[in-house]
Amino acid sequence: MNVEIRTETGAAAPRFAFWDAWAGERRTLARVTPSAAPVPFRSSAAQTGLIAVTYLMWGGFFLVVPLVTVHFVDELGWAAASVGLVLGLRQLTQQGLTVFGGAWADRIGPKPLILAGCLIRTLGFAWMGFADALPVLLAASLLAGIGGGLFDAPKSAAITAVTRPEHRARMFSLVSISGNLGMVTGPLIGAWLIHLGFRTAAVSAGSVYLLAFALLAVTLPHLRPAAERGSGFAGLRAAALDHRFRRFTLVLVGYFLLSTQINVAVTLKAVALAGPGATGPLYGLSAGLAVVLQYPLLRLVERRWRTRTALVAAVLAVGLSLGLMGFAATFPQLLACVALYSLGTMLVYPTQQALTARLAPAGMTGSYFGFSAISLGLGGAVGNLVGGLLTDAGKRAGLPLLPWLTLMLVGIVTALGLRWALRGVPTQAQLEGEEGL
């Protein structure tokens, strides 16, 4: 989807200077084509809308989902396994549908799918507030998962379409920062709303997606798919047959296995060192560092390393940090390791997304982003299981370092695998015929 940022009428999309003061540089909206000199980055209305909508989506999600267990298990006395099953099926539904959501975006454009996904998730989250039986909660959760599956990959495709290639890693970084802000503020708002009742919190979370719908309806132009590429699931077939991209996607399963450990092995270690209250500082440090450092860190790395080199180094840092956690004897020492872990994870997302966009042929961006969701789905599912199994195995064997050294080994192997999988990937300069990433 290498298109100029224009509306269906052909008029240039409006520009916002929302990020100018914060990023400290002047930026200009430009056609997504090579030029003789570097073009500064200035956020358009479409880009600013996507950044803001990401904040709303993450904020709305974390406003209600953490409360599901609290309400149905602690307050209503439901079995924890039942609620866990519901949340797991929602995740599976969303990741499974994301694969196809990207392909549909290549066929009809990303905007209709993102808007439909927002509306469906509005209904799903609001319906949760009225669930009084397990089948009702399950149906509402599946509806919310369908909504997420419709907008996940198309949103990434839209970001790619409205951003110049050399600015994509930076744009994905801003989107990630916005999501982390939502992850921080969502639970705080949810904790306040739960005093008014779970129904109020659930309906409020749904309303956030309604606001996201309205914002994108105004700011995001309709991005026409390439006619010759937008039929059926040709894009998914192309991604699956693209041996380089297939290797890239499968190797990334190892990274997503590691990234889930913040919710499993790392959380269990934190609670063992400092009690249940340790989860607040743990997640606060991780998300807070991403909000403050992700953008400037990415800018620093961009000036010194190629994108693929930065991705390999970031995955290696995540693996090494997990290995060091095994030696942490106090909670502050663990937090120091979590800081290194967070520095790695905050670089992986924008670089991985930028490389996915670079590897995707014109008109197949959505399909490639959808296919890439396989790594998150497999890695996340396996990671949750493996983290718990390794922790239990280490305790039984009297080898507390077992899970951490194993995870570090996975990180090293994954980093080497990425180096192998990305051999021969052209730089942005080679693609554009000018100095780039």
UniProtKB/TrEMBL annotation:
Membrane topology per record: Multi-pass membrane protein
Keyword entries, A-Z: Cell membrane, Membrane, Transmembrane, Transmembrane helix, Transport
Keyword Transit peptide: no
One Pfam assignment: MFS_1
Principal location: membrane
Gene Ontology CC, one term: plasma membrane
SUPFAM superfamilies (UniProt xref): MFS general substrate transporter (SSF103473)
InterPro entries: MFS, MFS_dom, MFS_trans_sf, MFS_Transporters
The organism's place on the tree of life at top rank: Bacteria
Name of the molecule in the record: MFS transporter, DHA1 family, multidrug resistance protein
Organism name: Deinococcus hopiensis KR-140
